[in-house]
Design brief:
Largest sheet: 5 strands, mixed
Number of helices: 10
Number of domains: 2
CATH architecture of the largest domain: Orthogonal Bundle
Number of strands: 5
Strand content: 5-15%
Strand order of the largest sheet: 1-2-3-4-5
Structural class: alpha/beta
CATH class of the largest domain: Mainly Alpha
Oligomer: single chain
Distance between the termini: 100 Å
CATH topology of the largest domain: Globin-like
Length: 278
């Protein structure tokens, strides 16, 4: 059944908004004008729903409130609010509404009933807020992972016909896919015939990482380019031998400089130091 006391909150919307804003500022759970507009819209929809829904939390009026709250929670998550600050958003609204209700009604029984109904509604919304917040943060993390992956796999054109890809960090299946796509695309764009994969920044090589490297080499060869793996440190060499990983047919070098010299030899290029005469 609709609570008439909650329904009449709409008549005190401006006062409620002012009190809510004050509580949010005191808790540090607001970031200014952008959120002020969001809060006005949320309060207006919620108070309209309380007035016209006949107490049905599953009505169309409340569906609009829930949709807006999901958007606000996701937005706050992307703007860097913590879970506590995000929860405080609705807690402050509950406190503000409770204060207004106490000013409107002196009957303890009616006041208790209204606060109980409001708390139940807002507590359910708080759960929705947390779920939306987590979804927003997951989207941020996923985007950052993609950006870091792009940054950490740059393909560099070091000479005409030669590209190099320094790999930093661990290779997994998804990252190997990014590495191959970037490398193959750069081979096509530059018309390069030699690609150098430098693994100096890879902390360790196990059988899985080696398989990913072999796949990348195979894909490069299918594009008509030769591949050189550089950065084979002594500990990596020992690991490869210990694991019985077969790198037969793949050119490996200890350093990027050595790999580049090999690439020059394959292209029949010679780099000499120019003598400067006075």
């Amino acid at each position: 059944m609709q609570n008439s006391l909650l329904a009449s909150l709409k008549e005190h919307q401006n006062k409620l908004l002012a009190e809510w804003s004050k509580l949010l500022q005191a808790s540090g759970s607001t970031d200014g004008s952008t959120e002020e507009e969001e809060s006005k819209e949320f309060a207006s929809l919620l108070l309209d729903a309380l007035k016209h829904s006949n107490g049905n939390a599953d009505s169309d009026e409340f569906e609009n409130v829930y949709d807006l709250l999901v958007g606000i929670s996701s937005s706050r998550g992307r703007r860097g609010f913590s879970p506590r600050e995000n929860a405080q958003y609705l807690i402050a609204f509950k406190e503000a509404a409770s204060k207004i209700l106490s000013e409107m009604e002196s009957d303890p029984s009616k006041l208790y009933s209204a606060n109980l109904e409001l708390s139940k509604l807002l507590d359910n919304m708080a759960i929705l807020t947390f779920e939306s917040y987590m979804k927003g943060r997951e989207e941020v993390i996923s985007r950052q992972i993609d950006e870091i992956s792009e940054i950490s796999t740059p393909v560099i054109r070091v000479w005409d016909g030669i590209v190099a890809l320094p790999i930093i960090g661990t290779l997994d299946s998804s990252r190997t896919q990014v590495v191959m796509e970037n490398l193959l695309q750069q081979i096509v764009d530059t018309g390069s015939s030699i690609a150098i994969l430098d693994i100096s920044g890879v902390p360790a090589v196990d059988s899985l990482v080696a398989q990913h490297l072999i796949k990348t080499v195979s894909a490069t060869r299918l594009m008509g380019a030769e591949c050189i793996i550089s950065g084979i440190r002594p500990e990596i060499a020992q690991t490869v031998v210990h694991l019985g990983i077969d790198l037969t047919g793949i050119i490996t070098k200890a350093s990027l400089a050595s790999a580049l010299q090999t690439a020059f030899d394959m292209l029949q290029l010679t780099v000499v130091k120019r003598k400067i005469t006075n």
